[in-house]
């Protein structure tokens, strides 16, 4: 007896289509800022969905299917009782009244799982439990509650319609029905449906293995002692790791609390083997200790850009090591890193997973108060969105500072103020990205 039901068709092996070169030409160092969507689309153009494989159904939770799945059975598989009672011919009990019950002869009992073939004739009944196959000739079930629960003979006090209290063959799912489509994300309800249809294995793309590396000589792991007055706790490693986990990644957390390029090279090199994607934080701006920007060009193809967004202006992308592992290099300020995650990393993780809708869908909200923005940049305000009878209202929390972790934690949305916008009046509509993916 095989543990897994064998599928009749073997999954097709997909070709490895990882890029070997950037398929676009990085900017030649001009001063113009790159629009956010353009940077995102460039990153997306450099990654391909991970190769799918057959996995057990339960393990596919949260993953995107790579096949349409049809049912090869009916659900229910056979007409069966919906309640505990007596299987009858409705016509026999049509005149049943409390004061004038109909008496039927009980010819047997059927339990769930009982395949005994029984057939009833006129004025006969079978005691039947929920889920047991209906006997031939019966067309309804009379619940115990409207009978005297008799054994050899039963009195029925109330009539039932034909078809009452039974679940017909194929009434839920018919043989040949499509149960799920390629690209659909497997949730618990779909798992229930597929399991009910006897499907134990599906073809799905795996969780991307995402390595998160935080850089910065000033950083200390939370829980460890701060030993000099200039040290701070590393917020990004867990922030970005948790966001990646919520996006569906299998996350490895690697603190690289250093600004030394040689040390970082060793750390990154060690991670290449297990990464479908590497995310670094910090060290991508113009400072003297911007280690990521100094190191990465020597490890592969890189593209550093100033993106027309605030926070999150300095961004880096690369394909590094022998296998051209994609690396997204985020700025170090925690809010910048998080906003950049939402803008760039989330879509890339979704693409790796084969999810069709990769970008955050903008949600329209009414601004509750005046909002100001810098011209020429997409401004991401931290917002609190509340839902009032189906209408969404948003207000900003805190200031623009990209170090403000407290405000970020209070927010449930990012308010997108486009580059051409300098001011939004109270009552105007604005676009927001909702943040509760997890
Ligand atoms: P950087 O991009 O490395 O120049 O960092 C910009 C700012 O973000 C500096 O004030 C850093 O101390 C801070 N920063 C960088 N990485 C982290 C981190 N992992 N956690 C908290 N703050 C950070
Ligand atoms: Mg730094």
Keywords, separated by commas or semicolons:
Beta-clip, Molybdopterin biosynthesis moeA protein, domain 3, alpha/beta, binds adenosine monophosphate, Molybdenum Cofactor Biosythetic Enzyme, Chain A, binds magnesium ion, six-stranded mixed beta sheet, five-stranded mixed beta sheet, 438 residues, 3 domains
Characterization of the model:
The structure is a single chain. This protein has 438 residues and is an alpha/beta fold. It has 3 domains: 164 residues, MoaB/Mog-like domain (Molybdenum Cofactor Biosythetic Enzyme, Chain A, 3-Layer(aba) Sandwich), CATH 3.40.980.10; 88 residues, Molybdopterin biosynthesis moeA protein, domain 3; 72 residues, MoeA, C-terminal, domain IV (Beta-clip, Beta Barrel), CATH 2.40.340.10. The protein is built from 7 helices and 27 strands. A 6-stranded mixed beta sheet has the order 15-12-16-20-19-17, sandwiched between helices. Strands 7-4-6-5-8 form a 5-stranded mixed beta sheet, with no helix packed on it. A hairpin with a 4-residue loop joins strand 19 and strand 20. Helix 1 packs across helix 6. The longest helix has 20 residues. It starts with 35 loop residues before the first helix and ends with a strand. 40% of the residues are buried. The N terminus is likely disordered. The structure holds adenosine monophosphate and magnesium ion. The site of magnesium ion (MG) has 6 residues, from loops.
